[in-house]
Amino acid sequence: MKITELLEAEDPAVPSRRGFLKTLGGAAVAAAGLSAQDATGAELKKLNILDNPKSRLLYDTAKPYIKGTELAQFMAQCAHETANFSTLVEFGGPEHFKKYDPQFNPKKAQELGNTKPGDGERYKGRGFLQLTGRDNYKRAGEALKMPLEAQPELLENPKYAAWASVWFWFKQVRDRVKNFGNTKQATTPINPGLHGLKDREKKFANYQAALKEPKKHPGIKVAAK
Length: 225
What we know:
Helix content is 50%, strand content 0%. The protein contains twelve helices and no strands. α5 packs across α10. The longest helix has 16 residues. The two termini are 34 Å apart. The relative contact order is 0.15.
């Protein structure tokens, strides 16, 4: 697919891909302009994502903008954050989300831009990279022209979640990582506490191996565990 086709293609989840590219900056435009071709069937089988509609949608959305080792890291981080693409919503009940709420944890709530009682649960982690907090929902919504602050549950829809995750990666992750082969570096902007680092490293190694494997040697699949 050429860049002009990519930009003009209609997508009900994202009104303007041209506008989306502009929000990501020159690096994204350059990446998309290279040759935004779909992955081959063999490559997708190696990544073991053909069987999961959510991961396939995410991969297809991200590939025009994110390449190589960075793409492997992006997919690995998303796989961890979604428990192997099984959920787009942060685990936990009302008590758990008090940690984001201004009534119960004002300091953390201020960091996230949560200003009203109930914002902790309302703006809980959603999407492939668990976007959290009123400020993040607002900024992503403004960039993508989606009413995310008013309707945060939209990020439970894989189409919206995929675009929001690519936006988050460019705006919050890419500039803070010097080496995408270093999973600790890539995890820090997403989860400063580095929770689940070993699992993230394992997933990255699997995705990296699948993406780098020569096409004449089919076979490796990303382990779900």
